[in-house]
Amino acid sequence: MFDFLDSADMEKLGGAIEARCKELKIAPDSIEAQMIASQLLDMFQNGVADAEELATRPIALAIIQRHG
User: Pick from 9, 33, 35, 8: which is nearest to 23 by CA?
Assistant: First the structure.
């Protein structure tokens, strides 16, 4: 199921989410940012643990853009 995320994991995810939001010009407190966070968390839980890869790996933009 879900593994506990330590502070280093949260820092990686937070940085990747922030980078994605900035790149896509999305407010960090928006529903779109939550969608990005959800996708990145899913990637992380499926073994993508590198901060750079989390910040650059493709995400489902069509879902995000529909809500934007």
Answer: 33
Q: Domain limits at 52? A: 29-68
**In-domain check, residue 16:** no
What letter would DSSP give residue 25?
T
Whole-number Cα distances in Å, 62 to 18, 28, 65: 19, 18, 5
- The residue with tokens 């995000």 is 64
Give the count of domains, the chain: 1
- The answer to whether residue 11 is domain-embedded is no
pLDDT tens, position by position, 25-68: 999 999 999 999 999 999 999 999 898 999 899 988 766 665 55
